[in-house]
Amino acid sequence: CYMTPLVGGYIADTYLGRYRTIMLFCLIYLGGLVMVVIAAVPGDVSVAVFFPAIYIIAIGTGGIKPNVSTMGADQFDDKYSKDRKEKESFFNWFYWSINLGA
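^ that's the sequence the OP posted. Answer follows.
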């Protein structure tokens, strides 16, 4: 999950843009979550579905993380000192939350 954001950022900057990249990778992420739910059902298939699901979730995360944080940065204007301080606070809370959830 720490290397895939490089790919997600590259795809957003080069091909799709932030919004389309977020939507595409949200669908990939959702597909991985559905596979994890399917893998939770006891049976012989659960291990074969679980591990690919984890990798699919990692790919989905890679497209979401770098683009959501830049959307947060767009909400602040560096011309104003109050906005600069609020932007710092935003990134502190954002990365604290991301790493807490990881």
